[in-house]
Amino acid sequence: MGKQIKYMLDEDKIPKKWYNIQADLPTPLDPPINPKTKNPVEPEDLAPIFPMELIKQEISTDRWIPIPEEVREVYRLWRPTPLYRARRLEEALETPAKMYYNWEGVSPPGSHKPNTSVAQAYYNKKEGNEKITTETGAGQWGSALAFGTMLFGLDAEIYMVSASYDQKPYRKILMETWGANCYPSPSDRTESGREVLKGDPDSPGSLGVAISEAIEIAMKEETTKYALGSVLNYVLLHQTVQGLECKKQFEMIGDYPDHIFGCTGGGSNFAGLFLPFAGDKLRGESDINTAGHDVQDLKITHCEPASCPTLTKGLYLYDHGDAAGYTPYLKMHSLGHSFIPPPIHAGGLRYHGDAPILCKLQKEGVTDAVAFHQNETFKAAHTFAQAEGFVIAPETSHCAKAWIDEALKCKKTGEQKTLLMANSGHGHFDLGAYEAYHKGELIDYEYPKELAEKALAEAPDI
Ligand SMILES: *Cc1c(COP(=O)(O)O)cnc(C)c1O
């Protein structure tokens, strides 16, 4: 027998509670603001579009929130997820660092996203709703929601950005296989869609327009609600199953991370992995044996695209969560809600803001952030695929870059650091992007600073 590579937990170790970092924040989060009244949002304001239980979770400061047994039953399909020691990559890099990654690509949709879509579908079903609407860009969130709604017998109506609908048909077929109805956005099914089509019948669409269409339907129909796949507190909460399992795996190994890396779009996958560790850091103690590591020394690094650099270049202010301006104002790092990022392949990282919880932790100095261009990230993903086999999502390639860089630094210094990467999903539907990389056709887009400045000038004065 060689050395151990995968660390697996039994199914009965699937967490029974989600971890809510709001209990451990040094000061409370700034509340979301109702754009009409300019006052903090009241639960009733959100009731037409979200189930009550999720609204409660959004504002809860309880440290632990029970995971319904029905949701844990579904999690059993792919959870607990494995923690890998990247021994082949360590050898290829000749690093003394210990490189670990948790692997969310084993879920049926192939990413971390069903950790929340399943929970959201469950609460909607429980509260008597019949249908969920949502938007999707490249289709990762849409397919995760289609999977979740199928399991609980709900309808799903998904607005997919028209450009992707035509260019990336496979995610759409996946959604349809799981029973969802998927429409190219702008569509003629909603007022917002028809308005855009009037101006440009061939509009390629945008996430902002697709969100408007999905929310419009949810507001019109009594038993239809809207679902969001990132950014909100309860989405991050549901994702903490990752970090909670991962801590148990490190306990099994007798190790604890020195440095955690993840890619951050809205921030849900990375938050899911690091929040339980960040809680240790905030409380100054861990519930597991940290094998001599001081929790205060833990470093946590967000990895984002240089062309959509929300944490490294954005301003920390109140802004809309969506381009259309339907959502409340959220306090976050933003490039402006009308900012349209360059068309990088990591579609999941093309978001103008970040989850308010993550922005707060960034401000408190609990985390830091770096930004990369797409060629260097695909180079890291290629190195990873050649050593470890798995072809990772273009989003994930951003943290692979930082993780590998740190391992190479350890090679110079001789440090045996424990480096953990959030491996959020596979890239099997993104092979076109890999092809472009292999052919040398990937563009490293500059950050469109003027566009962001213009968009930020429209941010509300609060
Ligand atoms: C959607 C997605 C992301 C980005 O979203 P976050 O909310 O920032 O996690 C990252 N990786 C994968 C594989 C995704 O599908």
TrEMBL record:
Its EC number is 4.2.1.20. PROSITE patterns: TRP_SYNTHASE_BETA (PS00168). GO terms for cellular component: cytoplasm. It catalyses: (1S,2R)-1-C-(indol-3-yl)glycerol 3-phosphate + L-serine = D-glyceraldehyde 3-phosphate + L-tryptophan + H2O. Pfam families: PALP. Keywords: Amino-acid biosynthesis, Aromatic amino acid biosynthesis, Lyase, Pyridoxal phosphate, Tryptophan biosynthesis. Pathway: Amino-acid biosynthesis; L-tryptophan biosynthesis; L-tryptophan from chorismate: step 5/5. One of its GO terms (molecular function) is L-serine hydro-lyase (adding indole, L-tryptophan-forming) activity. InterPro entries: Trp_synth_b-like (IPR006316), Trp_synth_b_CS (IPR006653), Trp_synth_beta/beta-like (IPR023026), TrpB-like_PALP (IPR001926), TrpB-like_PALP_sf (IPR036052). It is an enzyme of class 4 (lyase). Residues 77-424 form the Tryptophan synthase beta chain-like PALP domain. Its cofactor is pyridoxal 5'-phosphate. The beta subunit is responsible for the synthesis of L-tryptophan from indole and L-serine. Tetramer of two alpha and two beta chains. Belongs to the TrpB family. This is tryptophan synthase.
